[in-house]
């Protein structure tokens, strides 16, 4: 390990926010700067972003974090990059964008996926058998098939198809590559963390294989900052750049979830519940997601697509007095939690199913018709029971995700906006029966990228060594056995409701009746 004042720069390009964060050699976060990009929706269900703007905002964030800290470019030992995954970031032979990037959350390919499901027996299961993921509309291969059928001129002009972080590393270094985490998600092969000839054929993109770049290890130095990128970012020309991983694996590394049996829940708009495994897991079948990590390691993930959305909705509908009295966001959530604690554990019999998305649920099973429900209400219940039931329902959804993965969970690392709530984190520990750990810091995706950068330049021999040397101070929440016993009864009701309501949801679904 090196000594001195050298720092690591981690870049995390999200769906609409790019962050540049500096880290000390021991992993402590120095400062982060964020810049917003413009999410474009030119047609319903589309989601695009300007590739040029994404690079410009990244360069601006790098310049700003250097300026605000007074750090000299010579003090940056290496750059690590992560970003939103898959989609299609097309460049031509000169390295210029062919069109706006199509993002992971774009939904234009759903009619194509439906058609392939009708034409190819067992299509969705064949995809799952290869990459351990349900078929997502914004994955690279279905997007390319859509472009081939609807915008062939874009593919004719394209030299390479990249993912977000790989576009940024290209702009820094001029090097074209992709890493195993992205190759798996296109969809690819979960066993080899690579491209899949079977998937190329199944999705009908065999004629466009030329577009796919070479796969390089996530922790490998793939180039150095060239002169033009140095001018635009303020970085020193020649600074090493490490390839990096997609944002989900990067966040897992950032919170220290790397050994099998350690889980991490990313508590944002979606609750992404990931368990580290030492081999790819394909159970439960046809549900959830699989990510690979360097090591090799894998993440088996179950998603509640209505995470903090449920809390935001409950606050808007039931907490107007708290909103009016609050001095700011932190104070608002403190007041909302105080309201929730006016109701005892179990919310006096009120149970909430947090299926608020109009798209239904994708874990622990896929059910597009699923809808949120309150159960057990009487005229004796108050706002306190409603709000507490929402918190408890969200905690139940986390347990629901981990319970269906056939592997033991030893500990859960928590990050994201909802992890700032001690009230909610203790509830998660009591509901799941697991020790919950909230690491210090905020930019865990950028930290994961920075840790890989440290390995890439030889500060550490392995990722495990790097994680051991860069621990985060943490707040620990231990399960209370008596509260766990009481929550078990509420979870049993929650589970019964979730299973029993499936035929009701389907009958009630307006699309099913049309």
List keywords for this structure.
alpha+beta; seven-stranded mixed sheet; 39% helix; six-stranded mixed sheet
Would you mind describing this structure in some detail?
This protein is α+β, with helices and mostly antiparallel strands and 514 residues long. Helices cover 39% and strands 19% of the residues. The protein has 20 helices and 19 strands. It has a seven-stranded mixed beta sheet with strand order 13-14-12-11-17-18-19, with helices on both faces. Strands 3-2-1-5-10-9 form a six-stranded mixed beta sheet, sandwiched between helices. β1 and β2 form a beta hairpin. The chain is globular, with a radius of gyration of 23 Å. The mean pLDDT is 95.
Largest sheet, described in full?
7 strands, mixed
Give the oligomeric state of the chains in this entry, treating copies of one chain as homo and distinct chains as hetero. Answer: single chain
Average pLDDT figure: 95
Give the helix/strand class.
Answer: alpha+beta
Poorly predicted residue ranges = none
How many beta strands in the DSSP annotation?
19
**Spatial strand arrangement across the major sheet:** 13-14-12-11-17-18-19
Q: Indicate the percent of residues in helices.
A: 25-40%
Provide a quick synopsis of the model:
With 514 residues, this protein is an alpha+beta fold. The chain is built from 20 helices and 19 strands. The mean pLDDT is 95.
């Amino acid at each position: 390990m090196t000594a001195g004042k050298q720092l690591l720069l981690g870049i995390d390009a999200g769906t609409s926010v790019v962050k540049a964060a500096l880290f000390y050699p021991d992993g402590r976060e120095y400062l982060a700067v964020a810049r917003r990009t413009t999410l474009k929706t030119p047609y319903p269900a589309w989601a695009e972003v300007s590739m040029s703007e994404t690079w410009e905002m990244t360069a601006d964030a790098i310049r700003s974090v250097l300026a605000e800290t007074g750090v000299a470019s010579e003090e940056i030992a290496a750059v690590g990059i992560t970003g939103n995954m898959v989609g299609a970031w097309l460049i031509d032979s000169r390295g210029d964008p062919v069109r706006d990037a199509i993002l992971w959350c774009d939904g234009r390919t759903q009619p194509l996926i439906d058609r392939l499901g009708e034409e190819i027996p067992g299509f969705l299961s064949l995809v799952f058998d290869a990459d351990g993921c349900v078929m997502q509309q914004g994955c690279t291969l279905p997007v390319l098939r859509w472009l081939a059928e609807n915008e062939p001129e874009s593919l004719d002009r394209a030299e390479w198809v990249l993912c977000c972080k790989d576009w940024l590393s290209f702009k820094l270094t001029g090097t074209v590559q992709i890493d195993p985490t992205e190759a798996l998600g296109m969809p690819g092969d979960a066993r080899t963390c690579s491209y899949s000839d079977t998937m190329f054929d199944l999705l009908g993109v065999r004629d466009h294989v030329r577009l796919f770049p070479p796969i390089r290890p996530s922790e490998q130095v793939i180039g150095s900052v060239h002169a033009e990128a140095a001018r635009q970012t303020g970085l020193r020309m020649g600074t090493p750049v490490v390839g990096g991983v997609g944002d989900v694996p990067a966040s897992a590394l950032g919170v220290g979830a790397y050994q099998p049996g350690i889980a991490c829940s990313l508590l944002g708009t979606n609750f992404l519940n990931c368990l580290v495994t030492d081999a790819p897991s394909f159970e439960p079948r046809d549900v959830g997601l699989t990510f690979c990590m360097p090591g090799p390691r894998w993440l088996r993930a179950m998603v509640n697509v209505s995470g903090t959305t449920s809390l935001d909705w409950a606050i808007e509908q039931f907490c107007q007095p708290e909103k009016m009295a609050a001095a700011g966001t932190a104070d608002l959530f403190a007041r909302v939690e105080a309201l929730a604690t006016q109701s005892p554990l179990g919310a006096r019999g009120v149970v909430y199913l947090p299926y608020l998305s109009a798209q239904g649920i994708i874990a622990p099973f896929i059910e597009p018709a699923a809808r949120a429900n309150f159960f057990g209400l009487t005229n004796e219940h108050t706002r306190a029971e409603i709000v507490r039931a929402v918190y408890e329902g969200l905690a139940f959804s986390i347990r629901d995700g981990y319970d269906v993965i056939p592997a033991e969970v030893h500990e859960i690392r928590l990050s994201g906006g909802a992890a700032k709530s001690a009230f909610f984190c203790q509830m998660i520990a009591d509901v799941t029966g697991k020790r919950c750990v909230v690491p210090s810091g905020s930019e865990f995706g950028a930290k994961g990228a920075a840790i890989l950068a440290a390995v890439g330049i030889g500060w550490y021999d392995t990722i495990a060594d790097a994680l051991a040397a860069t621990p985060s101070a943490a707040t620990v929440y231990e399960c209370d056995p008596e509260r766990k016993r009481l929550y078990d009864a509420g979870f049993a009701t929650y589970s019964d409701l979730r299973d029993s309501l499936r035929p009701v949801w389907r009958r009630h679904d307006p699309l099913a009746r049309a």
